[in-house]
């Protein structure tokens, strides 16, 4: 390769590495093979194999907590271990699950299925038919991709249904209307996909029909819409069908209808969340809303009777009021009550609201810790079947997760305790704040030795996008490979996330994405200011949206880092909307085909701003070939460009994995180990 500084702002698509976007092209695959061989030769020796096997054994432990959900009174789980790397789909009773070693009924062995059919199958999701749940639609993914093959499965005979519902590979989802009818949201078929590659229509598909005969009952009205979806609400009889058209990632129209199609579009702000149950409706606002002579602030949650709302009433009850650092994280119904998940100065809170004709009553969900990372969700997959039982996961960076059952909205009891997988006797968890370039306070959590040496090997990470909140958790892999060897972990709550509500997200969105990157760099500087470490001993990792973050640390703040690990990344912000699902993210970043938007996008498109002769730290860029969400071309092209400029750049691309690190535990272990050892070598953490 020779140094070539194209593409430029003036000619952004004059790209000498465009050929690497051809995922299965022979020349591109030869590039990938050569890069993989080079990377594994340098970092994949005996130490790598030992650490990979150690992590795989941790991921495969029989005492890990099974993830369960309840359907028709039984708990279902997909279990992976060394003997079943693709997984066993299985079920048991709640009473049996309470036992230390429950007995499971095996429904489907995914490894056997893959071997019998010579396919790289992974099980993505399952849709079962209420209330007996004797039939299911299984989504089978090749190599972990988002696109799936749909097949009907009989849970009584434990076999696929001969002549049953089947659909070739596509992105989408499905709901059972009745035993012989599906509501299908799928991109499969001519004219059925949006520009983002998701479903453009909802079809009513009856047993015995070919997919071409299925009736379209709802379709996107806007040619630029991201997706359409449907959901069947069985909290009333007859069941309602809700339809939504995603105008972009954050804005949508919501319709109420039935199996024949949409009937009434709800008069709601297009960026609000609406959550119905029975004759009640909860609405979470994203922006202020003036209605009925009253202005409701951004991030407020409103409650109202659905029938009254449809009749024109706007007499809302405010169920949640945000604060400067108090923000809603989610809301859902369980057992006829509305559960609100809240972060208050990053501390978890859970509120219950019970509607009645006399009004809404309130209580706190009791018995959960205030200083921990706590997630709470319904045990039942179908809200209409919920008796109010909830599951809670409680953990912190030094305390393994416990799975707790909350029955009747009372105090939780522990169902399962995850094993402790690394030694942390001399470690502490502390919270700090850095000051960003504009004076904003940026929280971060530090986990590591209690005594500061001024030269700690630090592993930093963040996300900063799509309103997604980052909270410190027990990381079995990094605990074993980094903390146990004397390193320090740092997680930063940069803008663009949802930790402090819409304003925090919006501040790191569009042109503000660059500000979110400044936040991360400010945390790195604060670690040095506090005497934790020095720049050459700071490693940083980010994935997906975090790939933009890491490549901007490379080109904008190279002096603050010793090494970087960029995973399943988004990088080329000129072409991202043309690659796979990229067009669905315009509401987060902007549209590069608009001059105004390209004006800010080009400032954090590291593929365009990288220059020769700079003090860039070593970087490993890793993706997966079966990632059909963020195109692997981003990682390939950035690698090629940096290497052509003479930088210390490495690349890794396994064949499977989807938008993740692998489809089985060993693949995940390999991906994580390779990146961790790369960072450790460059920042001086002893790994042998």
From TrEMBL:
<dbReference type="GO" id="GO:0006508">
    <property type="term" value="P:proteolysis"/>
</dbReference>
<dbReference type="InterPro" id="IPR023302">
    <property type="entry name" value="Pept_S9A_N"/>
</dbReference>
<dbReference type="Pfam" id="PF00326">
    <property type="entry name" value="Peptidase_S9"/>
</dbReference>
<keyword id="KW-0720">Serine protease</keyword>
<dbReference type="InterPro" id="IPR001375">
    <property type="entry name" value="Peptidase_S9_cat"/>
</dbReference>
<feature type="domain" description="Peptidase S9A N-terminal">
    <location>
        <begin position="15"/>
        <end position="229"/>
    </location>
</feature>
<keyword id="KW-0645">Protease</keyword>
<dbReference type="Pfam" id="PF02897">
    <property type="entry name" value="Peptidase_S9_N"/>
</dbReference>
<feature type="domain" description="Peptidase S9 prolyl oligopeptidase catalytic">
    <location>
        <begin position="482"/>
        <end position="684"/>
    </location>
</feature>
<dbReference type="InterPro" id="IPR002470">
    <property type="entry name" value="Peptidase_S9A"/>
</dbReference>
<dbReference type="InterPro" id="IPR029058">
    <property type="entry name" value="AB_hydrolase_fold"/>
</dbReference>
<dbReference type="GO" id="GO:0070012">
    <property type="term" value="F:oligopeptidase activity"/>
</dbReference>
<dbReference type="InterPro" id="IPR051167">
    <property type="entry name" value="Prolyl_oligopep/macrocyclase"/>
</dbReference>
<dbReference type="GO" id="GO:0005829">
    <property type="term" value="C:cytosol"/>
</dbReference>
<dbReference type="GO" id="GO:0004252">
    <property type="term" value="F:serine-type endopeptidase activity"/>
</dbReference>
<protein>
    <submittedName>
        <fullName>Putative prolyl oligopeptidase</fullName>
    </submittedName>
</protein>
<keyword id="KW-0378">Hydrolase</keyword>
């Amino acid at each position: 390769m020779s140094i070539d500084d194209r593409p430029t702002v003036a000619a952004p698509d004059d790209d000498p590495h465009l050929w690497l976007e051809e995922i299965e092209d022979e020349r591109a695959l030869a590039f990938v093979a050569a890069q993989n061989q080079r990377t594994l030769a340098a970092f994949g020796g005996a130490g790598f194999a030992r650490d990979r096997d150690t992590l795989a054994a941790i991921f495969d432990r029989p005492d890990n907590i099974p993830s369960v959900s309840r359907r028709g009174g039984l708990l279902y789980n997909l279990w992976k271990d060394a003997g079943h790397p693709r997984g066993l789909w299985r079920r048991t009773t709640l009473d049996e699950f309470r036992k230390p070693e429950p007995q499971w009924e095996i429904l489907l062995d995914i490894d056997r299925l893959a071997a019998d059919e010579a396919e790289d199958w992974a099980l993505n999701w399952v849709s079962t038919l209420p209330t007996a749940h004797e039939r299911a639609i299984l989504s089978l993914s090749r190599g972990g991709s988002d696109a799936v093959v749909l097949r009907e499965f009989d849970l009584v005979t434990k076999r696929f249904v001969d002549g049953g519902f089947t659909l070739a590979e596509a992105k989408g989802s499905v709901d059972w209307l009745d035993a012989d009818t599906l509501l299908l949201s799928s991109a499969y078929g001519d004219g059925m996909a949006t520009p983002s590659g998701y479903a453009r229509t909802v079809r009513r598909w009856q047993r015995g029909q070919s997919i071409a005969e299925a009736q379209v009952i709802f379709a996107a009205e806007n040619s630029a819409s991201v997706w359409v979806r449907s959901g069947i609400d069985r909290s009333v009889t007859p069941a309602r069908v809700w339809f939504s058209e995603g105008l972009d990632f954050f804005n949508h129209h919501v319709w109420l209808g039935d199996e024949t199609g949409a009937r009434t579009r709800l008069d709601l702000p297009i960026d609000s969340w609406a959550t119905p149950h029975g004759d009640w409706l909860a609405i979470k606002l994203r922006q202020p809303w003036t209605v009925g002579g009253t202005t409701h602030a951004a991030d407020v949650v409103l409650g109202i009777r659905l029938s009254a709302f449809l009749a024109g009433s706007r007499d809302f009850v405010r169920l949640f009021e945000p604060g400067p650092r108090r923000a809603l994280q989610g809301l859902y119904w369980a057992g006829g009550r509305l559960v609100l998940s809240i972060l208050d100065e990053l501390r978890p809170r859970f509120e219950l609201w019970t509607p009645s004709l006399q009004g809404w009553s309130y209580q706190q969900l009791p018995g959960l810790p205030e200083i921990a990372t706590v997630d709470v969700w319904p045990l039942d997959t179908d809200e209409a079947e919920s008796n109010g039982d909830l599951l809670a996961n409680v953990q912190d960076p030094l305390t393994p997760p416990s799975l707790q059952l909350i029955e009747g909205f009372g105090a939780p009891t522990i169902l399962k305790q995850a094993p402790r997988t690394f030694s942390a006797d001399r470690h502490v968890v502390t919270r700090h704040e850095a000051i960003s370039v504009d004076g904003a306070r940026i929280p971060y959590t530090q986990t590591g030795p209690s005594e500061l040496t001024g030269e700690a090997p630090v592993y930093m990470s963040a996300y900063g996008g799509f309103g997604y909140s980052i909270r410190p958790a027990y990381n079995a892999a990094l605990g074993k490979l980094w903390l146990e060897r004397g390193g320090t972990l740092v997680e930063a709550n940069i803008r663009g996330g949802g930790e402090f509500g819409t304003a925090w997200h919006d501040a790191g969105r569009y042109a503000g994405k660059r500000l979110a990157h400044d936040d991360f760099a400010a945390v790195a500087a604060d670690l040095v200011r506090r005497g934790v470490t020095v720049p050459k001993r700071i490693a940083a990792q980010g994935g997906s949206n975090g790939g933009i973050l890491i490549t901007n640390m490379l080109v904008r703040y190279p002096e603050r880092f010793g090494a970087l690990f960029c995973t399943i990344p988004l990088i080329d912000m000129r072409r991202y909307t043309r690659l796979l699902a990229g067009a669905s993210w315009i509401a987060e970043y902007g549209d590069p085909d608009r001059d105004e938007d390209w004006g800010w996008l080009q400032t954090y498109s590291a593929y365009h701003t990288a220059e020769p002769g700079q003090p860039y730290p070593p970087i490993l860029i890793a993706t997966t070939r079966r990632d059909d969400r963020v195109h692997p071309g981003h990682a390939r092209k950035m690698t090629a460009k940096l290497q052509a400029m003479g930088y210390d750049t490495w690349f890794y691309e396994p064949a499977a994995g989807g938008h993740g690190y692998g489809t089985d535990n060993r693949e995940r272990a390999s991906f994580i180990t390779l990146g961790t050892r790369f960072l450790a070598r460059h920042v001086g953490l002893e790994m042998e």
